[in-house]
Design a protein that fits this description.
The complex is a heterodimer of chains A (275) and B (305). With 275 residues, chain A is an alpha/beta fold. In chain A, 36% of the residues lie in helices and 25% in strands. Chain A has one domain: Rossmann fold (3-Layer(aba) Sandwich), CATH 3.40.50.300. A 10-stranded mixed beta sheet of chain A has the order 5-4-1-2-10-9-3-8-7-6, with helices on both faces. The longest helix of chain A is centred in the middle third of the chain and has 14 residues. Chain A is globular. Chain A starts with 5 loop residues before the first helix and ends in a 5-residue tail after the last helix. Chain B has 305 residues and is mostly helical. Chain B contains 12 helices and 2 strands. Chain B has a two-stranded antiparallel sheet. The longest helix of chain B has 36 residues. Classes of the chains: A alpha/beta (275), B mainly alpha (305). The interface between A and B is medium-sized, with 25 and 19 residues.
Chain lengths: 275, 305
Amino acid sequence: MNSLSLAQVLQPGVEQSESQVKKTVLKLEHVNIHYGSFQAVKDATFDIYEKHVTAFIGPSGCGKSTVLRSINRMNDMIRGSWIDGKILFNGHDLYDEQVDPVLIRRRIGMVFQKPNPFPKSIYENIAWGARINGFKGDYDELVEQSLRQAALWEEVKDKLKQNALRLSGGQQQRLCIARTIAVQPEVILMDEPASALDPIATGRIEELILELKNNYTIVIVTHNMGQASRVSDHTAFFMVDDKRTGYLQEYAETEQLFLNPQHRKTEEYISGKFG
Amino acid sequence: MKIAIEHPFGKKMRIHERLIEATLFGFALLSIVITLGIAIILIRESYLFFSDPEVELWGFLTGKEWQPMIGRFGFLPLLNATLTTSVIAMALGIPVGLFVAVYLSEYASDKTRGILKPVLEVLAGIPTIVYGYFALTFMTPLLRSIFGMETVQIYNTASAGLVIGILVLPMIATMAEDAIGAVPKELRLAAYALGGTKMETTFKVVIPAALSGLSATFLLALSRAIGETMIVALAAGAGPNLTFSPFEAAETITGYIVRISGGDVSYNSVDYNSIFALGLILFLITFTLNMISRKISRMFHQEYE
């Protein structure tokens, strides 16, 4: 970051991390998502910043996972889903007719709620994505690099040929993260990545997320507010209206949202009054 | 004297529960008894065959000529014909059945699936005797017009094999579709999320993940093809012939059994007993294939638990 923000110039004492110029990677503009005649999300407008962690929180059915899936067009897989509004990725509209969703998913990876490694070896799980992307480099190195970044290398380096399904749930999830990293995406979407894991495995995933944000933009959906406050820089709080349509209630820096929520609903939700 | 005090939650005799359980058990037992009975008869009659002074086991297994009338009991010609028709059937049935299954489970819209599946069911419901005539009156003339009247005999294993392939096709397609459909949806999503195209996802993730279920399907289809009788009896030829040309007439194990059991061979003759020995061998082959298939598909179900 070589340009200084206005805040930095005016307040030289402010810490670098808070005043850093934030580059917008994803820009959602009036996004409405429908499943057939049912509107799942209405009018979501917000920005996601480069190499930051953005958390989506909110009660069940508020559309947070739907918004997440719309960012790499995984919603296309759901029959009857359609979207209007714009999602700009580095300035390009992801829903332009010219856009090939396959290419988007190579830049915007995704980690799912339930660990879903392929029933192949650990090595093949990592190499798969690179292989279909026509990666020409050194696969051994790629596998090692990816596993190291996902903090899994030390545990599996002696059994790379072993079937990935024999790993523990937490290891499987870190393998899925490693597999996503191996494609070298810019953005990693995580849909409640730790909700199927025990507290220790969850802790490791959270550490990993903080590590990964040095290199990747991360968007995480979570039910766990502690997790959102521990790992994220920005938090989007989604609510659901009486027609079961989700909407963005409040979006702010995580500290701000948790310590000084602007809406009564946000305050009630983060203090556990409903959810 | 003790008076039995009735417990408020005491056990009740429910006669009809016991009765229905006993009846159901009886029927279950019956199927086992029947299977055992068949096996025992096969073994007993086969024993009569093998204990005949004219027959020796080694000669039976390795002999190249099968002419019971003149005391030649080498069953290789029959086995060879059975293998020829079965291999041809699999060569047609496996790829086509697999592609139909892939299309149905991964590509077809609900509408085309709604048309294709009933068609497959109709195909599966056609009596095998009709397939036999189909082989004789359609497939054989077709082969003869393609490869020449001199090359292709009227009765030949290629025609029978191809039609057996069509016969097992619905079975392969349906079972393979089940195997492919049993692959968790999450695996497909994972592949798509890594930037996989539909083809990459289908052929590099879904089908490999379904491989054990698919191999079980193929083995079951093979066992069905080996046991198929009517088509080969009508179209493959009526006379043992050790040949590797699929365009020549050759009698399969099942074909021979049909001819002898329907013919005027006297009971207790060695020819008559031979069909039980052949039946036993068929039974052992298909039984082994089914067991392997079961074992493989069990392994498959454990993988995702």
